[in-house]
Amino acid sequence: RVHGKSSALFYGNAAIVSAIPIWIFWRVHEMDLKENAPLFAVCTLLVTFLVAFAYKNSKFIFKHKIAAKRDAAINYEITKKIGDDKRVTKKEKEERVLWKKNEVADYEATTFSIFYNNAIFLLALLFISFMVLSNLSPMLNYSISMLSAAGLIALLSTGTKC
Amino acid sequence: SLTCKNAAKNINLYADINGKTMQVTKSEDNSKYQYQVSFSDENKNLPSGRYDLKFYDEDGYTNLRKAQRSGEGASSVASLFTITVSHPGVWKGPMVQTEFVAATVAILVWYLAYTARSKLQSS
User: Fold this and answer.
1) Using one digit for the tens of pLDDT, what is the confidence trace for A72-91?
2) Does B99 lie at the interface with A, CB-CB under 8 angstroms?
3) Is the pTM of this model over 0.90?
4) I need a labelling partner for A116 at 20 to 30 A (CA). Which of A9, A72, B32, B40 fits?
5) Using CA atoms, how far apart are residues A22 and A132, in angstroms rounded to an integer?
6) How does DSSP assign A78-107, residue by residue?
7) Dihedral sign, CA of A142, A148, A149, A150?
8) By CA distance, what is B107's nearest residue in A?
9) Which residues does chain A have within 8 Å of residue B112's beta carbon, measured at their own beta carbons?
10) Phi and psi for A47 in degrees, rounded to 5?
11) Which helix (H) or strand (E) covers residue B90, if one does?
12) Mutant choice from A28, A58, A123, A127 vs B, greatest count of B C-beta within 10 A
């Protein structure tokens, strides 16, 4: 379950990340933009979905871990904020802690998921495109390296450890 | 541009460039650049630096040839004037390959992400 704002962030980021390698392939591998526009469009779309998929899965896994880690810190912060206010019941305090923890973990997991997946995607793409497939024709190079890199992060994100 | 003391015009000039002597070409139709001389060589034979181009008139050139034949060396003949050309050298390519830089940055970013994730997992 992903909320609206989170989802928009994921898809927006995924679209940017999938679109940027077009620039690399255009300039370095010398692929003409107009000629290869349909290929670029299709690949970018597929990669966007795969990358967003990876983001969502990673975020889900990271969120639990982060929430567990931040528990103590948030508890301390809320306690300090409440201070000596007698009106706040224990139950309400725990509710606040839970809500704040959820919010913080959500945000942190989202950004970390994006960062982590982007790092792997970039490294995999550069490696596959320039080292493994450097002798292939640019069109094949583009499609295989993009889909492989995106597929890789999608696959890794479904693992339990991630 | 140069003017001669005795207002001589249309004289024959000779240039000594990097040990090679040649006559400076005169062109009548090009009024701005009447005298032109050029030299070229392979890049490795022309390292970056300042090159002194010595110019001689007819008499000077004759003296120069005499000195060269007798093995005295060209420096004993006084030149009419000298033009110094500074050659900055040619670019031999980037010091570090761009793909190396790109790969290094990508690996560094991945390493940061990986350590952050490990810290997260270790809890």
Assistant:
1) 888 888 888 877 677 777 88
2) yes
3) no
4) A72
5) 18
6) HHHHHTT-TTS-HHHHHHHHHHHHHHHHHH
7) positive
8) A123
9) 119
10) -65, -35
11) none
12) A123
